[in-house]
Design goal:
Elements: H1 3-29, E1 32-33, H2 34-41, H3 45-57, E2 61-65, H4 69-72, E3 81-85, E4 91-97, E5 102-108, E6 113-118, H5 127-145, E7 152-159, E8 162-164, E9 169-172, H6 183-191, E10 195-199, H7 200-211, E11 220-225, E12 229-235, E13 238-239, H8 263-267, H9 269-276, H10 287-302, H11 306-330, E14 334-338, H12 345-358, E15 366-368, H13 373-388, H14 393-401
Parallel strand pairs: 4-7, 7-10, 11-14, 14-15
Antiparallel strand pairs: 1-3, 2-3, 4-5, 5-6, 8-9, 11-12, 12-13
Helix pairs in contact: 1-2, 1-3, 2-3, 5-6, 7-13, 9-10, 9-11, 10-11, 11-12
């Protein structure tokens, strides 16, 4: 390659990286003045001004007068101006599918939900039917609420199972009873937009560590506490995928002291149901019925039913004790619980007590996420298509001028 071409490509790459850095500051920490953005990114004021001008012309960023008390107290002089993300500058699609709910949502660039459609599917076992319904509902939301598709940046799909995010292929989803499904390519072709497919634990880990309660945490273990259990692993700011993208599928881990019982059958929602309904035919009961039974048990525990509270607490305690070898190995900054049981104070408190009693020296904080799978999917889409990938500013400028 000619030297001039190499220099041109390097210059273009540098420009894109600098633009990402400025936009990330605005999205994650804004509103901010240009001077503070320059300090945080190490760029010159001239570079920040040039980049911010391009972002303003594209309609992504707007200027807001800084009315903070601290700066207002400085007295007369040039009024500072903050840069902020224009939430109305674009849209992202977020889809979440598990046995508890199946939703298609549309949000602005600050993840404020514009519209949501609950699918309420009684049978999730046919991927063709599920995909067809999602496409239909997504197209209806987009047609009715997105005036210019150039401002639809992309979408994300969070679901239960093992997922290859590079190809968008679901390798397996036992609770949905799916085998291998080319979910990403099929949705992208049908909707005419880029889509990222992620497993539920990974989506929640990415969303909460970047935008939510675990913001800034670079080493975290996420535990999905639902009918079953799964994990998301964040190590040095990177998701651990594992062989065949199956890292975190930990339900079959045996729990010491429980006659070979597995983590999934003792510490998850299935464990709660087995304690409450001895002899329950779990394989023969539809997953959505099991989900309804678990939600009823969680509600009963919250209302003071002693038997339900005891079953929920026992499952949480088992999880806390089972976390000891995982925490000892990974040494995360925090463990985050997510899913329906994470919304139960009884379960979360029992998990904390179980970990503290079994390994008091670990002193690892346990966080409880209240983020839904659809919220997480939209945050993942914002992170991917607004902050990680190259934006077509020319197209956005044309859309802004239209």
């Amino acid at each position: 390659m000619p030297e001039k071409s190499k220099e041109s490509r390097n210059h273009a790459d540098l420009g894109r990286n600098n633009r990402r850095a400025v936009l990330s500051e605005v999205v994650l920490s804004g509103p901010l003045p240009r001077r503070e953005i320059a300090q945080n990114t190490g760029l010159t004021m001239a570079a920040v001004s040039r980049i911010s001008r391009d972002l303003i012309y594209a309609g992504l960023v707007l200027e807001r007068p800084d009315a903070s008390d601290q700066r207002a107290a400085r007295g007369p002089g040039r009024r500072l101006v903050d840069l902020d993300l224009d939430a109305k500058a674009g849209f992202v699609l977020g889809v979440g599918v598990n046995v508890f709910s199946q939703v298609v949502t549309l949000a602005d660039l600050k993840n404020r939900c514009v519209a949501q459609k609950d699918l309420k599917l009684s049978d999730l076992s046919d991927p063709d039917a599920v995909i067809g319904r999602i496409v239909s509902e997504a197209e209806a939301l987009i047609a009715g609420l997105v005036p210019d598709r150039r401002r639809l940046l992309g979408g994300s799909f969070a679901l239960t199972g093992a997922v290859d995010p590079e190809t968008g292929v679901v390798r397996t989803s036992p609770y949905l009873r799916w085998g291998e499904v080319a979910l990403g390519p099929r949705l992208a072709e049908a909707l005419g937009m880029p889509l990222l497919i992620e497993s539920m634990p990974v989506a929640l880990t990415l969303a909460e560590s970047r935008f939510g309660i675990a913001r800034g945490v670079r080493n975290m273990l996420t535990m999905i506490c639902s009918l079953g259990t799964g994990a998301g692993i964040l190590a040095d700011g990177r998701i651990v995928r594992g062989h065949d993208f199956s890292a975190g599928m930990i339900g079959d881990i045996p729990v010491a002291g429980h006659d070979g019982g597995s983590l999934e059958m003792l510490a998850s929602g299935l464990g709660v149901l087995q304690r409450l309904f001895p002899g329950l035919d779990i394989p023969g009961t539809p997953a959505n019925d099991l989900a309804d039974m678990l939600m009823a048990a969680i509600d009963a525990a919250a209302a003071g039913d002693a038997r339900s509270a005891g079953a929920v607490a026992e499952a949480g305690g088992v999880l806390g004790r089972a976390l000891v070898p995982l925490v000892s190995l990974l040494r995360p900054e925090a463990v985050m619980l997510a899913g329906p049981l994470a919304a139960s104070p009884t379960y979360v408190a029992a998990c904390r007590s179980g970990l503290a009693e079994a390994a008091p020296k670990l002193d690892t904080p346990i966080l409880a996420s209240a983020m839904s799978h659809a919220d997480a999917a939209r945050w993942v889409a914002i992170g991917e298509f607004l902050l990680e990938r190259d934006l077509d500013l020319k197209s956005l400028r044309l859309a802004n001028a239209a």
